[in-house]
């Protein structure tokens, strides 16, 4: 990752995002981590999941972050680059290791264990931001995970938003509340402040109940309407909601034929939604695309591996029949 204090925009991706991507280990036999002798080696991170999803859908996208100059860091860097994501501002550093997460599913419930304290990404700071790169984008997508990693990461997240707003770049913000990284009382003011600065707010309904400390939908809608952002509320019973100052639009889900791994569904949704916006669809239609991508992601193991191509999405949207042979 390079530091660039110049304000002149550079030609680059339409959508950019940044954050921590970690090595991921999962049991290969359906057992718990404690009892499994074999583990799948994968990787994941909310922001790179979104970036890969956008790229698969044909979008021009960039991701940057810090990875350890170690085997997993090099693998992650090459894999993300191989998916067509611009990684020209990403950095491999010998100063700290690549973060690690381990995941298991027992009795239908997913548990994630993080080993990311003092990781390379947690040491990211304002100096790692390239103003020209941000200025050249149309959308900056951030999540609430980055400011949870460290004080310097929080400062970097707010500075990235400031730079985007300075240059007329739209800010997309998914709170991605992670209570294993910070408590709700610490997270709430930070996430709500970022929501105030965003053009597009992408919370889950459960997150909103925690952030606004209420179960009352009408109260939540009232709070969302105090924001300048258009709010896209994921996690309704059967639909996603588009909440604006004067309307609420419900967009039905697509039914998944099978659910294999639910992690990454929200990131897939964001990828589909952002690509829909980049294609100049209205919010409801962009949400429809996001709903479809999210439903496809959960049918494959891994955080991003099931991300579809635009051709696959377009075929489903237009009910094109699959010819097997």
From TrEMBL:
Carbohydrate kinase PfkB domain span: 15-309
InterPro entries to which the protein is assigned, alphabetical: Carb_kinase_PfkB-like (IPR052700), Carboh/pur_kinase_PfkB_CS (IPR002173), PfkB_dom (IPR011611), Ribokinase-like (IPR029056)
Keywords on record: Kinase, Transferase
Keyword Nuclease: no
Gene Ontology MF, one: kinase activity
Acyltransferase among keywords: no
Family membership noted in the UniProt record: Belongs to the carbohydrate kinase PfkB family.
Name this protein carries in UniProt: Sugar kinase
Organism, as annotated: Paenibacillus anseongense
Lineage, uppermost ranks: Bacteria, Bacillati, Bacillota, Bacilli, Bacillales
